[in-house]
Design a protein that fits this description.
- This protein is α+β, with helices and mostly antiparallel strands and 261 residues long.
- Among the domains are: 5-51, Ubiquitin-associated (UBA) domain (Helicase, Ruva Protein, domain 3, Orthogonal Bundle), CATH 1.10.8; 53-136, Elongation factor Ts, dimerisation domain (Tetrahydropterin Synthase, Chain A, 2-Layer Sandwich).
- It has ten helices and eight strands.
- The strands form three sheets. Strands 1-2-3 form a three-stranded antiparallel β-sheet.
- The protein is elongated and about 90 Å long.
- The two termini are 47 Å apart.
Length: 261
């Protein structure tokens, strides 16, 4: 059958699919564009299934903001070329805004269908939801690195959004695991102590002085994994805790989140 070239162009514009796929879908649907889109989606789903075992090392993160709520969404793809594709970038941004208005689990179910039926049809790579998180709080600050591959959010009990943004930058740069030393599980502390004892034994240090040395090693460990104990990135002569105290004694870090693609 003879196909209207304008119809083929319209279908390509709507789906981003190739000319041959569009022609085939329109022939199957007898030029019914809605049925053709459905056929392409089904074909896209099959492509996605075939590509689902391919590595997704690239991607983009987007941050959506609303009053007392921040949503972070990351999509992973196979190539940097796709990560720089405007359709892909806009899709991640749209998803982060959508998450602001949805329950997290509901969003995860919804977005999987969107990825499979829309993005894979358009872009033709294995695309996966890498991150989806919502942080709520009285004072929020977020940071998205210039490469759109690292994002962080900090929630404070009080203070200014500017303070929260500075702390979000700290989280992005230094990757803390906990807010303060008291948050570290006891078993993790004991494991660290055992490692230090083995180190001291191998160094030939007398056993009677081990317990005097270990607290100093633990303090260095806290500086690595605890946000409040870390040297502040904008002035390493003070800790993050000291920096926060300058803004107000009662300000507490309630939660933080960091992700990277």
């Amino acid at each position: 059958m003879s196909l209207d070239t304008k119809l083929i162009s319209k279908l390509r514009e709507l789906t981003g699919a190739g000319i041959a796929d569009c022609k085939s879908a329109l022939e199957e649907s007898e030029s019914d564009i809605e049925k053709a889109i459905e056929a392409l989606r089904k074909k896209g789903a099959l492509k996605a299934a075939k590509k689902s075992d391919r590595e997704t090392k690239e991607g983009v993160i987007a941050v959506g903001k609303a009053d007392k709520k921040v949503a972070v969404v990351g999509l992973a793809c196979e190539t940097d070329f796709v990560a720089r594709n405007q359709d892909f970038i806009e899709a991640v941004q749209d998803f982060s805004q959508k998450l602001l208005d949805m329950d997290l689990e509901e969003f995860k179910n919804w977005v999987q269908d969107e990825i499979k039926n829309e993005l894979v049809v358009k872009i033709g790579e294995n695309i996966q939801l890498a991150e989806a998180e919502v942080i709520e709080g009285e004072v929020l600050g977020s940071y998205l690195h210039s490469n759109n591959k690292i994002a962080s959010v900090v929630s404070l009990s009080a203070g200014s959004p500017g303070l929260a943004v500075d702390l979000a930058m700290q989280v992005a740069a230094m990757s803390p695991k906990y807010i303060k030393p008291e948050d570290i599980p006891t078993e993790e502390i004991e494991k660290e102590k055992e490692i230090y004892r083995e180190q001291l034994r191998s160094e030939g240090k007398p056993e009677e002085i081990w317990e005097k040395i270990i607290p100093g090693k633990l303090n260095k460990y806290y500086q690595e994994v605890c946000l409040l104990s870390q040297p502040f990135i904008k002035d390493d002569k003070m800790t993050v805790q000291d920096f926060i105290k300058q803004a107000g004694e009662q300000i507490q870090v309630v939660a933080f989140f960091r992700c990277q693609i």
